[in-house]
Design a protein that fits this description.
Elements: E1 5-7, E2 18-20, E3 23-28, E4 30-33, E5 36-39, H1 45-61, H2 63-67, H3 73-89, H4 99-117
Parallel strand pairs: 1-3
Antiparallel strand pairs: 2-3, 4-5
Helix pairs in contact: 1-3, 1-4, 3-4
């Protein structure tokens, strides 16, 4: 039995049989690829949740700094663009993104922008 697992993007949930040198390879239900989790149906909802959780956690660490009036907006923008956005978008090139996921990413980004600008709802 092989320990090698192969990713198969398959929305019909049918098992795919791949044989290599007489050994049947296991089909991976989810796989970590370039830091992102890809599921067998091609959706990345869990990965989006993980990324948004990390964004929220890091924005929380920097909350006092981002809210401080003594810190110039230019410095806050550098933190947003250089640290926080890459956290939420790491691995985006491997994602199959839906409108719902895009909306969630934009909303999370806007939440941080509102924090920086001092705008409340």
């Amino acid at each position: 039995m092989s320990t090698l697992e192969i990713p198969v993007i398959n929305r019909s949930h049918r098992a795919v049989s791949i044989v290599l040198k007489g050994e049947r390879l296991n089909q991976a239900i989810k796989l970590r690829y370039l830091g992102s989790t890809v599921s067998e149906n091609g959706l990345i909802d869990r990965e989006i949740n993980r990324r948004l959780s990390k964004l929220s956690q890091n924005a929380g660490f920097l909350h006092t700094l981002l809210k401080a009036r003594s810190v110039p907006n230019r410095a806050k923008k550098i933190i947003l663009v250089g640290i926080l956005r890459p956290i939420s978008l790491y691995g985006v090139e491997t994602w199959t993104i839906t409108r719902t996921n895009m909306s969630r990413l934009v909303a999370a980004d806007m939440k941080v922008v509102r924090l920086i600008r001092g705008v409340t709802r």
